[in-house]
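Title: Prediction job returns without error message
Component: structure pipeline
Severity: low
Priority: P3
Assignee: unassigned

Description:
Job completed but the reporter wants confirmation the result is attached to the right record. Sequence as submitted:
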Amino acid sequence: MAKNKVYIIDVTNRDGVQTAKLGLAKLEKTMINIYLNEMGIYQSEFGFPVTRHENNYLNANLELAKMGLLKPIILSGWIRAIEEDVDEATRLTRVKHLNLSISTSEQMLRGKFEGRKTREDIIRMMTDACDRAREKGIETFGVNAEDASRTDNEFLIRFSQAAKDHGACRIRYCDTLGYDDPFTIYERVKLLAQEVKLPVELHCHNDLGLAVACSVAGAKAAIDAGVDAYINTTVNGMGERCGNADLVSVILAIKKAKGFENRYVLDERVKLSCAWKIAKYASYAFGVPIPINQPAVGSNAFAHESGIHADGALKDRRNYELYDFEELGRGEPEIIETGRQITAGEYSGIKGFRNVYGKLEIEFKNDEEAREILELARYANVHTQKPLTDGELRFIAQYPEQARKIMTVTP
C-alpha cells in the first residue's frame, strides 16, 4: 500500500499578494507560477477569479497551462463559498480548480457576520456552493474552514463531513490568526482526519512565529491519521500581517528535520535546487530583502565567524551545517547585474534592446518582430515599475500573446 504524502500548495499569488503595502504585477505573478512549476510544486493558488482585474492574467495563465509551460502544476482560484462566486468564477474565467472559503468560528459568527448567520446557515451556504461547483464542471475543489483553529472540534468535524459529502477533495484547516501551536494543531488535525477521512490542507499564519512548525506538525497529524497532507506556503513567507509558512523552510523541515527525514514522504517532484532562484526573484518582485538569517537562502545561512564554528566547518561542513548550499541552487547570477547596464525599459531603443536580448542568446526573425517584442518590453517595464529580469524578458519573447493579455487591465 502506497504511503500517504505531503504536497505543497503555494498561495503566494493569493495570500502573499495580500501583504499590506505591497503586491505583485500580473507579469510577476506569472513568473512566480513558472518558477513554482519548475520547482515541482503540486499546486498554485494563483488568484481571485471573481476579481475583474485578475481575469486576463488568470485566463492567460490557463492558456500557458494548455500550451505546456505551466504543467503539471495545478492552477486553482480562491472564492467565497457561495453560489454567486462559483457562477461568476466560471463565467469570467476557464478555471477548473477552486478553493471555497467560509468562516466557521463562533468569533467570526459574532464579529464578522454579526449574528446574521447561524452554524446551519454556514453549512448550507458551503454545501450549496459545492453542489454548484460540481454542476459547473469544476474538476477539483477544496473547502476552507476560515478560523478553524478557533472553531470547536464538534462543529469543525460536522462542517468537514458535509464538505466531503458534497464532493470536496480536501478540507483546509485555516489557522487564520496564527493561534495554534504545534501540539494543539497536531491533536486537532489528527482527530479531524480520523473522523472525516478526508485529506487535510494546512494554512498557517505566522503571528506567533510558528507557521512552519504548525504546518509540519499538522501534516504529520494528517499522515498519522491515514490521509494525505497539503501544506500552504508562500515564497519567503510573504502574507497578511506577519506572513505565512515559508516555502523553502517547509520543504527543508520535511526533508531534513529529525522526526520527519525518511519517515514522512514529500511529493517527489519537489526540487529544492530551485529554492535560491525563486526566493531571489520573489524578493526582487515584492521589493522586500531576504533577512540575512533566513533559513537556507539568507546571506548568513552558511556563514561562520566564531573560531570554533569556522574551524569545525572547514574540517567537515557537516559539523556545523545541516544541509548543503549546493542543494538549494545557490550562487546563480544576481537578478540585476552590477557594472555597466543596458536594461530594457519603457524608453528603450532598438539597439540597446537587441543588445539585451543578444546576451540572452535570443534572436529575432526580423526588425518587425524585434520592434513588437520591444513594445511589449516597454509595457512590461511600465507594468512592473522595475528593470526587467532575464526570466521576464525570455517569457515576453517566447509568449508575446499571453504576455500582452497578462499586462492588460481594463477598468
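Comment from assignee: result matches the submitted record. The chain has a mean pLDDT of 92.
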